[in-house]
Amino acid sequence: MTSYAAPLADMRFVINELAELSSVTALPDCAEVTPDLVDAILEEAGRFGAEVLAPLNAAGDRQGCTFENGVVRTPDGVIEAYGQFVEGGWNSVPFDPEYGGQGLPALISTAVAEVWTAANMAFGLCPMLTQAAAELLHAQGSEWIKATYLPKMVSGEWTGSMNLTEPQAGSDLGRVRAKAVPDGEHYRISGQKIFITYGEHDLADNIIHMVLARIPDAPPGVRGISLFVVPKFLVNDDGGLGARNDARCVSIEHKLGINASPTAVMSFGDDDGAIGYLVGEENRGLEHMFLMMNNARLAVGLEGVGIADRAYQQARDYAMERVQSALIGGDDPSPVTIVHHPDVQRMLMTMKCQTEAARALAYYVAASLDIARRHQDPEICRDRQGLADLLTPVVKAWCSDIGIEVANIGIQVHGGMGYIEESGAPQHLRDARIASIYEGTNGIQAIDLVGRKVARDNGAAATAFIAKVRQLDHDLGEVEGEDVAAIRVHLRRAAKDLAEASDWLLETFAGNPRRVTAGAAHYLRLTGIVAGGWLMAKAAMIAERHLAAGDGDPAFLRAKLISARYFADNFLTQSGALKVMFKEGAAALEELDPERSF
């Protein structure tokens, strides 16, 4: 297994050029976020990821977590690493300074989070959920809840967890049965929750659970769900820890991957009922929880980016060292490193360009959220929020799928060694596999995209996005170069295919939503490819201009041009087939008998 190094050059390029850091620094309270400061943060995050987190990745996978008598222990070294993480202030990066946060933009915290995921995905899940829970409480919690829990959650001294699903519910949260009975100023929570990442562990003194439950006489389905904060230990008036709450882990799951991350089965209220405090309004819990869920969905998409980059780095380094076979078409019979073989180059470039496109999209959406939250022009805020809402399920699903695909190709680059655990390549695939299931499966993300994000607003956000793509097509025409010209042709055709697919969606959804949702995964992939291709085309245009002006690192810029061209030639060209698959591929399902056809 090779060591990890944060891809700082590409991260800087995406932050500065594609996500347009200058637009973010122009926002209120962001003027001090200069490129120099961003560079310093990325450098230090990269060092921490490479020197502290990455060395624990393989060892933690092998050792895993243990559960005994209600106690969960993480692998050797993780407690110490988490202590350094908290001491370094890394958990506080995106939060309000009022509660001890650093107040940095989402664009920067997103880049930093990629490093944690790439270096050690199992570790990175803990701060990911803590940060999502803290953001939820900041937005919906009462002043007492915020004062009680946020300072130590922001610092990372206390961690957070998300308790949604139950054994009988799965993703159908309308079937949640956990109960919340009023008891004075709080509630008594009872019920079981499953698949709770870091629901129990030994990294922090307290764990703050976000729990969905039903109050008495609540309406059926999702309309009757409320949200509660349920601490592992109750908090005294002076801020110190009090009695142990009636919330316990009863087992941890044995998983395909992320073995150093404990996934708990949580039981609330085995005795007198776990004390919980209402967050927001009664019966609006799922609505409030969506803030945390959307935060987590973007973070899960970023996990795809991080794992993809880690797998790519390992495959690239192996290909540069592994000597095997003579060069095809050459005169010298001596074997060469496999990076010289065309098929290996194809695999590596497939890994590289998709990882870069996914990173660009994740960072761009993060910057859009910064602008939506902070800009002083309400129209600009609405535009960027609409764009972020449209692309959130795409980031989650498309980027997590890329993580799986890239990790899978990485095994192939290693050949037989890729199938051996000691090489390290299999762990990336095993770890990546959960991301397409987390926070609503990728099929659910696709249904959300076609139904809530496109059909519900009659295609307004999709139309606005396609207009942005077509505006870049105009700008590309002003740049010379064969690569940019070829990219422009493919991008224009792909934008046309997405527009036609969107028109069909709007025409069909009201009368035949089953037909649309049956092919929704193809529409999401089409949207992801166009969005990624749009940003890669922009990268090519910027790289060409810098090369013409003699600015920047010419080797990096030429590599970026090649990567963008490869993405256009091999992925944007899939748009026509995806459009047909979306519109026609599910026709046979209309004749299907679920009881006899399988």
The structural class is alpha+beta
Number of strands: 14
| Backbone shape | globular
Fraction in beta strands: 5-15%
The helical percent reads 55-70%
Average pLDDT level: 97
Tell me the distance between the termini: 42 Å
How many helices? The count is 18
Radius of gyration, whole Å: 24 Å
What does this entry show, briefly?
By secondary structure, the protein is an alpha+beta fold. It is about 55% helix and about 15% strand. The strands form four sheets. Strands 3, 4, 5, 6, 7, 10, 11 and 12 form an eight-stranded mixed β-sheet that branches.
Describe the structure.
This protein is α+β, with helices and mostly antiparallel strands and 598 residues long. The strands form four sheets. Strands 3, 4, 5, 6, 7, 10, 11 and 12 form an eight-stranded mixed beta sheet that branches. The protein has a two-stranded antiparallel sheet with strand order 1-2. A two-stranded antiparallel sheet has the order 8-9. The longest helix has 37 residues, at 285-321. Strand 4 and strand 5 form a beta hairpin. Helix content is 57%, strand content 13%. It has 18 helices and 14 strands. It has a domain at 442-589.
Defining key terms:
globular; 14 strands; 598 residues; 13% strand; two-stranded antiparallel ribbon; alpha+beta
How are the secondary structure elements laid out?
Blueprint: H1 8-18, H2 21-25, H3 35-63, E1 66-68, E2 71-73, H4 78-87, H5 106-119, H6 121-140, H7 143-155, E3 158-163, E4 179-183, E5 186-197, E6 206-213, E7 226-231, E8 233-235, E9 241-244, E10 247-252, E11 263-268, E12 274-279, H8 285-321, E13 323-326, E14 335-337, H9 342-374, H10 378-414, H11 425-432, H12 442-455, H13 460-476, H14 482-509, H15 513-518, H16 520-549, H17 554-570, H18 575-584
Parallel strand pairs: 3-6
Antiparallel strand pairs: 1-2, 4-5, 5-11, 5-12, 6-7, 7-12, 8-9, 10-11, 13-14
